[in-house]
Every structure is written in C-alpha cells, then in structure tokens.
Design a protein that fits this description.
The complex is a heterodimer of chains A (443) and B (189). Chain A has 14 helices and 7 strands. With 443 residues, chain A is mostly helical. In chain A, the strands form 3 sheets. In chain A, strands 2-4-3 form a 3-stranded mixed beta sheet. In chain A, strands 1-5 form a two-stranded antiparallel sheet. The chains are: A mainly alpha (443), B mainly alpha (189).
Chain lengths: 443, 189
Amino acid sequence: MTRELKKQLRAIAEDVSVKARPEWLKTAREQLLTQISNTVPDRSEVSPRAAVFELSNLFLPRNFITVMRPVMAVVLAIGVTASGWIASVSATENCLPGEMCYGVKMATEKTREFVVAVTSDKSGEAHMHLEFAAKRAVEAGKVLDKKAPDAAVQAAVAIDHLNKSLKSAGDSLKQAMDSNPQDAVNITKDVNIKSKEIVDTLKEVNEKTVADTDLKKEVLESSKLAKATSINTLAMVVQKQADGEVKVDAEDVKTLVQDKIKEMISDAEAVKTQASMAVGTLPESASTTVTLTPIMAELANSMATNSPIVIVTSTSGAPAITADKTVIVVTSTQTVVLPPTVVKTFVDQAMVKVDESAAVAKTGAEKAVDFANNNQLVEAVAAIREVTNVTTNAETVMSNVNQVVKEVIPAQVVVPVVASTSSITVATSTNSTTAKIAPKTSQ
Amino acid sequence: MRNLISEKILLYKVKTAKDKDAFAVLYDLYAPKIFRFVYFKINNREEAEDLTSEVFLKVWHYLMSESNAEVRSFSALVYRMARNAVVDKYRERSRHQEVSIEQGVPETDLVSDVDQIREIDNKTDALHLVRHLNKLKQEYRDVITLRFMDELTFSEMAMIMGKSQLTVRVTLHRAIKKLSEITNKPEKK
C-alpha cells in the first residue's frame, strides 16, 4: 500500500495544476533578491573559529551526547546488572513517553531483556514482559493526566510498546509451558493477576482518552490482547493437562477454570450495570442542540446494520439532516449540530446491542459452568473465550455511550436512574408504607 | 533527488557569509515545494503566491538574526515557517469572516477542485486518493503529504511539526493505517 500511495501522491504533486507558475517564480525571485539586498551588507568575512563552529553545528548531530546516549545507556545498564549500582535505573523510572530520559528507560529495559533471556527461564521472561506491559499502561495514563498537546500521541507510543510486550509475553509463555510443565498452574495464576492489573489500568486510561477515537480503539484493542493472553495461557495448561503432558492435580486446573468463569461473569455483570445506569440520562428535549463529535459518529455507524440513522461523509455541499432524520450528511470542513433526540436514538440502539450481548454472555456463562462442572475443561475455556469476546465488544459500545453522554451533558452530574419500577418499604411510627419509584424520563 | 549535503553547504554560506546567491539557489530548490504546500492548505493561488514570497523573506531575516545558530536544516525551517504563515492567514480570515478554527489550522480539503488534476495517467485513482485524504484529520494528512509528496526525512518532519521522530513515525503509521481503512471501506451513498 505504501508504494502505491507514494506513487499516486508523487503523481498529484507533479500535476501542473498544483505547480507554481514559472513566470511568478521568476518575478518573485527577483523581488526577493532586491528586498534582501536592501537589508543586509555585502558578503562578510567569516572567522575560522566561527566557520568551524557552524560547520560542526550543521554536519554533526545536534548534541553529540544525544547520539552517544543509547550506547551509554547500554553500558550503564550492564553496569547496573553487573555491579548492582541502581542510580541510573531509578533515575529513569518515572520517565514518560515524549520525555528525553524515556529513551534511556527503554534502552535499560532492552538490556534487562537480554540479560534475563540469558540467565533466566522462560517463565521469568514472560513475567518480565508482563511487568513491562503493566508499566506501559500506567505510563499511558500518566501521559494523559499531563494534558500536554501531544498527550494522545505519546499515550499511543506507550500503548504500542505495551502491545509488543504482551506479544513477547505470549511467546515466552508458550515456551514456558513446554519447558516447565510442572510450573504451569503457578504460571497461569501469575499471568492472570498481571493481565487483570493491565486491563484495570487500561480501563482508567480509556476514561481519560476523552474524544480521541483512534486512541480509544487502540486502548480497547490492548485490553482485548491482555485478556486473550490470560485466556490463552489457561487454554494451554488445560490442553496439556487433558493430553496428560502436565503432571498437575486435575482439581487445581479445574479451580483455575472456575475462577476464570467467576471473573468473566463479574465482567459481564459490570457491563450490564453500566448499561442500566446509562438509561434515561440523555435529555429528550429538543430545545437545545448538540455538535456531532467523532465518538457520536463512531457509535451511530457501529449500529449501521440495524440503526435508523446513518452518518455519511461528503467532501462537498453543506452538512444536512434529512427530513425523516434517517441520513445525516457531514463534511470534513463543517460541523453538524443535532437535536438531542437524534443522539438518543443511536444511544438507544447501542443499548439494544448491549442487551443482546448480555443475553449471549449469560447463555455462554451457563454453558461454561456446565462444562466445568462436568470436567470438560477444554470446552469450558472455549466458552470463556467466546463470552469474553462478546463482553469486550459490549464494553467498547458502552465506552462510546458513556463518552457521548458526557459530551451531551458536559456540565451536569449524571445521576444513575433505575430503569424499572421498584418498591421500598418505609417504616413509620404507626404503620409501614410502600412507596413506588417511577423511572425518570428526562434530565 | 535531494542533495542534503549541498543544501547544508548552501545554508552554511547563508548563515556565515550572508551569501545572497546561496539563498537564491535555496529559493529555486524550495519555492515550488513551499508554494504547493501552502496552496494545498489555503486553496487560493494568488494568496499562496503572496504567502510563499512572505515566507522566504521571513526565512532570510531569521537566518540573519542572532537565533540562526539553532537552524540546522533549511527545509525544516522553511516548512515550519510556511505552516505558521498558513495558521496566521487563517486567523486573519477568521477575524474577517468569523470562520471557526480548531487547533490553529482548520480542516481544509486537499485541492478542493479535484477536477483540476488533468495530467495524471490514472485520474480516477488520484481523485479517489484525494477524496480519501480529505477524510483524514489534518495531522494525518500533513505527515502523509510531507513524507510522500515532499519527500522529507523523519528528522525534518520532526523539526517541522515540533515532535520527536518516534512520534512522527507512529503518527505516520497510524495515518497510513487509517487511510488504508478508508480506502478499503465501501463508500456510503
């Protein structure tokens, strides 16, 4: 794709319609030279010292130390490993992407990878990669907290490194299972703890991503990858135990699977709870308008197959909403304002999708429990994987819904509203009274 | 193909000896590129010509000033100044026309009148590409055009955009990925 893109872009660049007129170039050149002739004296002599300084400034790297830094970092890191001197390592511990010392930090970790690969076993290596992944997740959150103009890009750098660490962890785990089958259960427990830590941190990062759709997607993809790493490890130990390769207690493996099922059910419940809190929070009043944001467009278009609303991008013409509010035309240059009723429509559609996912997750969870109870652990893990995917997709939708709600009600505190009627008993001094709480329909 | 060493030598001559002839050679090398860069952003040929002339005059004055010690790349300097000049132009337009600006440079179409592209062998592909590029956000469009149209190095792009090289590489990677997604997505009617 890159080669083709380059070729086409060069072709556009060479087209005569976008080139400067030769006669203008010539005239402008003459005018420029006349203007600059009037402002400066004739060519001046340069001292040898100034000439050498200028030549070195132009032709040598900006700062010789910057070039030597990676080399020095490796030397220092080896010194740390060999001598136990920790000053340089601790100095870079708090460095974040975008900061000058971050390169040193990454170089130090690279050296540690090399040393661990030589001196430790594969499970130690996997643990190290997971530790690095957890650090990257924390860094992404801290970078977003700083709210610098390039925070999103720096967070993406951290997420990119996180994904690489997770993949390296996955590779090391496979080798660890093959080489240390007796440690399989402990390895799986360790991976599960670390993966959960990473997923929880990424949830916080996701809430900080605000309206950056690309970063949100990347964070959610990383969360998916972290969960998959944990499930893959579980699948490996279960398969090995089923094949008779792992000399561990079958009950220990079953406990691992049952614990994972509980965790999976808890995650699915959390999404369902979020969904019920979101109901009724958007205003239905059409007295105000809302600017269409990328997250809203993302949410609307993710419902495309069933939604009555479709957002279409046009490069020309004015933005528009058709009379039946079924097609919203946006352009790349002008904003579109929507009545909140339209936004509520695609949020409601999203809620339908989440409800459907919750139903599928419930069925899948029941299947997983049955399989585990019947010692069909391989099938149980397959069901866990399916339910986790469904729940993760629902989480993505909920993340976008929460962002849309925040965008529509920026200054208000969102008060969770119970979606259905419920009863409470109020005790009085003489008798009990039952009161009904009706659902609120608008904020 | 750019000769970076020759450019550095010319820059050296301008900075140290205030050599107007060396500056004229640099002008010949970069004026067409800067014009195209500006024209893509403001879509008005006359204004693009004025702005380009203004940019080179500003570059000359900057190189004559005390701050010129920081300048290590002529291309990075002239593109950065061109970018700033476009931002100033839009601020000026916004004062007259009340057009809103986001982050300094509003989202504008790359060559708004795509039918002007006449001499490309595969015009249909080029038209599609321009439409797809217009769907990208400004930052993504910038990195793609600076890299593939203006053929700048990552080091130069980093200086122009005021970011690290790693950040520019990540941004370019994301931009190409996004463009690929847009290119492969069937267009909605």
